[in-house]
Amino acid sequence: MTTSTTSTTGTNAVADLDERRSGTSTPRFLLGKIGGALASLVLVVVLGFLLFRMIPGDPVATMTRDRPTSPQQLADLRERLGVDKPLWQQFVDYFGGLLRGDLGESYSFSRPVATMIGERLWPTILLVGTATVLAVILGLWLGVRAAWRRNSAFDRVQTGIALTLWSVPQFWLGLILLIATQGLFPSRGMRSADAPEHFFGQALDIAWHLTLPCLTLLAVIYAQYMLVMRSSLLEEMGAEYLTTARAKGLRDDLVRRRHAVPNALLPTVTLVFLQFGMVVSGTVTVEAVFSWPGLGQLTYQALRGPDLPLLQGVFIVLAGSVIVMNLLAEVLYRVLDPRVRAT
Amino acid sequence: MPVAFAQPAQAQSDNSGVLRVALVQEIDHLNPFTASFASSTMVGRFAWEFLTLPSAEDATPTGGIAESWEPSPDGLTWTFKIRPGMKWSDDQPITAADAAFTFNRIMDDEKAAEANGSYVENFESVTAPDESTLVIKIKERQASMTALDVPIVPEHIWSGIEDMADPRTDSVEVVGVGSGPFLITEYRPNELVRLKANPGYWRGKSKVEELQFLKFDNSEAAVNALRNGEVDFVNRLTQAQFDTLKNTDDVETNQANGRRYRELLMNPGAQNIERQPIGDGHPALRDVRVRKAIAKAIDPQVLVDRVLGGYGELPGGLVPPIYDNFHYTPADDVKYTFDPDAAKRELDAAGYREGPGGIRVGPDGRKLEFRLTARSSEDYGQRATDYIAGWLKDVGIGVKKNLVSDNEVDETTSSGHYDLALSGWGTNPDPDYILAKQTCASLPASSGSSSSNAFFCDEEYDRLYAQQAAETDEAKRGEYARQAQARYYDQVPSLVLDYDNALEAYRSDRFTNFQRQPVEDGQIMEQTGYWGFYNAEPVAGGGDSGGGLSAGAWVGIGAGALVIVAGAATVLLRRRASTEDRE
């Protein structure tokens, strides 16, 4: 949807963007974007509903697998879950529920899906949020350094490390970290069974549990920020205004921080938002390795069912987070870059 | 600050009576009326005593809440005497009324029947004429009356619950009142279930003070946690994990005879309960000679040795050897032994001649080529299909491997859209359920609703099944059950391939005396009872948990490092700011 914004670092692309958006007032722009986001969301709901109906497997049969169940029980269960109704009826029921904010009830846990997702949202946000903040700081800092000293040993080593980590499967990296740290950090969960009662102790306990999953996620996602920062700064470095700045006699250090970096930051900032949406759905593997009680784990559980209402709920939340972040990225880009705003 | 750091560390090292168990499966409910996942029913077994339960020694029925039991001469009325003096954990007496309430609720309330409804299907009425007598009247004779796997709950707590699907039924306030060896004291969904030893438990308080079930999504992480001493018990290990743990200090492994069998389904002509054909199975498999030929072309010894790494037992009937009073071992003269030549002769006799490419062709001109469906998620599925395809090709049967998701395997097999498929089931000490699945009555009402996916329907088998189901004499019942299995074995709608071992490991430096069920070579966790953990004992002065520094110490170090980094950053920023100002 907004992928164009990330690639608009070239002057031509920016010019294109200006031309397309010229004449759009801010409220109209906002309305258009929000409308687009809502339309995407509806599409996600419809697609999600249809896609998950195509997954093979009868949820009732899977739920009752391996335990004594009579045909009467199976029929009762089908009726209770509403899977005996025709597909269109199921969709109408589902969509109606959604409009009332009701995501349905999980088949296997018979609890409201919205509650289950709510419980899992904050552990995921904590994990993804911490990792993203650290990855942005690390990525930008290393990216700036690497670009400024292009082709130096530092640049080559850092780029190499970043590329390697970026291509490493998260699952594998997590397990390696787990085994390599030899029990210095907990293998599972977000809290100890016997964490202290008071707030400070609990916070420390959670921080201790957060270390490895956060490190795994950080190692994989910082690379993108670094590489984008590096390349966009390299582009800026060829610009004439930097030569002017240097000609004024400004110190190299200042030229970089005051002039080059702020301009090069633009694509990176939007990337951060776009990525945040992706990372939420990408934590499935990290959460599975460390049994982190977040959305990723819930997705995994839902898929194994298949627990259709849960799966649909998670799908909407994950897709929704990407859509919202996209929207924010677009709005933010307009705020940050005067060239986009000027009409 | 130091006080805060010390606390988690202290909690970790002082818990010699705390047995921490890695749980790789989710908990769906604690409410025993709706709990269906294996892990949830296991927790229920600790919290609520059963009427009767399988003994630790040999899984034969032993007393629980009922002290003794007696069927009427016609076998249709069962009278259970309730053990005197038993109490719920809130000090209320346990009476026959509690048991009657539990069964009646399951019989009357559809939602309450979700997990255990099948046990009361044959019940006519359940009454409690007095405090110590429970009378169950049944419609037809049923031998499995001493194997009712239904936790008995306190009436004074559960009678107040209108809706069995209410989330409140999973809260500690409701599920915390129990009668078993442990009581549920804390539940954090997807994180932990904590149980404390029940001081008033009728067999005596367990030496394990506390049981913690800690949720792991990843079995590798669970194994790692066992090594580090974060948990004391891990089950459902893979062969590779088991082999590594065998050589780990302070860790003891248990290779137990399992409760599951694996089988090769051979679609014998899937049909629904009205005997109309369903699915699209290869017609050649309707011929028992073809199915026998397949059975003779397969070498189970190789599957056990190579695919299960030796962690399995050779096949016989549907009931695994762990329940030897019902297990069937075929005699030498009827046993299918690996004999490709015999398989070829059988196929020749059935009229399947060798055709182009070495694949046989039937009298109708159709090639003898089967789809072999298996789970792609399982190592077993991937490797066993290779062997089976090879063996069948040697006798002139073509095989197309079809490795798919678990759900797709379920769907294709239950709707009859398969030729050959790898499947498997867990069994209970009472063989009724597993044998009933193969009767004509278990054929699906509609396509895809089957509870049996072998689609077996045979008068002779049904007759033998009914005999064992009605027989209350244990020895005679065993004989009928074996005869039924022999009939099944002879007709091979599916071929049992092996019985997996259950692979478990525990910290022997922390706990000892885990009781196996059955005593010789059974499993410790996921028993049909609570013996394994109930009888465990902490090792005196038993090991500190975890290697390296304690949790608190590391939190301290981490926090310290953070402070240093933050401090350094502040200093650096200030210095920079000041230089900039100067410029």
TrEMBL record, chain A:
<feature type="transmembrane region" description="Helical">
    <location>
        <begin position="310"/>
        <end position="333"/>
    </location>
</feature>
<dbReference type="InterPro" id="IPR045621">
    <property type="entry name" value="BPD_transp_1_N"/>
</dbReference>
<keyword id="KW-0812">Transmembrane</keyword>
<comment type="similarity">
    <text>Belongs to the binding-protein-dependent transport system permease family.</text>
</comment>
<keyword id="KW-0813">Transport</keyword>
<keyword id="KW-1133">Transmembrane helix</keyword>
<keyword id="KW-0472">Membrane</keyword>
<dbReference type="GO" id="GO:0055085">
    <property type="term" value="P:transmembrane transport"/>
</dbReference>
<dbReference type="InterPro" id="IPR000515">
    <property type="entry name" value="MetI-like"/>
</dbReference>
<feature type="transmembrane region" description="Helical">
    <location>
        <begin position="30"/>
        <end position="55"/>
    </location>
</feature>
<dbReference type="InterPro" id="IPR035906">
    <property type="entry name" value="MetI-like_sf"/>
</dbReference>
<feature type="transmembrane region" description="Helical">
    <location>
        <begin position="264"/>
        <end position="290"/>
    </location>
</feature>
<feature type="transmembrane region" description="Helical">
    <location>
        <begin position="163"/>
        <end position="186"/>
    </location>
</feature>
<keyword id="KW-1003">Cell membrane</keyword>
<dbReference type="Pfam" id="PF19300">
    <property type="entry name" value="BPD_transp_1_N"/>
</dbReference>
<dbReference type="Pfam" id="PF00528">
    <property type="entry name" value="BPD_transp_1"/>
</dbReference>
<dbReference type="GO" id="GO:0005886">
    <property type="term" value="C:plasma membrane"/>
</dbReference>
<feature type="transmembrane region" description="Helical">
    <location>
        <begin position="121"/>
        <end position="142"/>
    </location>
</feature>
<protein>
    <submittedName>
        <fullName>Peptide/nickel transport system permease protein</fullName>
    </submittedName>
</protein>
<feature type="transmembrane region" description="Helical">
    <location>
        <begin position="206"/>
        <end position="228"/>
    </location>
</feature>
